[in-house]
Amino acid sequence: MPAKVLIVTGDAAESLEVLYPYQRLREEGYEVHIAAPARKKLQFVVHDFEPGFDTYTEKPGYTWPADLAFADVDPGEYVAVVIPGGRAPEYLRNDPELRKILKSFFDADKPVAQICHGPLLTAAIDGLTGRRVTAYPALELDMQSAGATFQDAEAVVDGTLVSSRAWPDHPLWMREFLKVLRAKAPVT
């Protein structure tokens, strides 16, 4: 049986930040499950940059079914977790079931990939104290408030934690995460 990786997300997650790791990890031979607050069809979004705008814009993205609800996740079944960005982390960080899931990954020193606004979730469980991370650049102060050292880079590796700024950085983010994942939980 292949090793399993969990993606935790919800409505308004960035489409590319969910689906790129989902497909890339499956391509590597991992079994990938998507968990959300409820088992339902999720509505993702597309964030893009428009000339003249001070920040990104948001458009409807793909829909995708969640395989299971956070309440049904047994973190012990998974070798790693991926935390996409978008707006979903803003409200997901308040979910006590998700915080328990994420804490178990950090407590077991399992690989964690986070991107864009995803680090808001790891900050909510005090998982960033003393760590080096990157995130969407507008979150620099949030990362510092969470006790992390912020680096504006495509990917930052700190032990088993691999972070990235946003979907344009996918290639390096996934390369670095796969190095960590293969070392900790190779596909058999």
Automatic annotation (TrEMBL):
<dbReference type="Pfam" id="PF01965">
    <property type="entry name" value="DJ-1_PfpI"/>
</dbReference>
<protein>
    <submittedName>
        <fullName>DJ-1/PfpI family protein</fullName>
    </submittedName>
</protein>
<dbReference type="InterPro" id="IPR006286">
    <property type="entry name" value="C56_PfpI-like"/>
</dbReference>
<dbReference type="InterPro" id="IPR029062">
    <property type="entry name" value="Class_I_gatase-like"/>
</dbReference>
<feature type="domain" description="DJ-1/PfpI">
    <location>
        <begin position="3"/>
        <end position="179"/>
    </location>
</feature>
<comment type="similarity">
    <text>Belongs to the peptidase C56 family.</text>
</comment>
<dbReference type="InterPro" id="IPR002818">
    <property type="entry name" value="DJ-1/PfpI"/>
</dbReference>
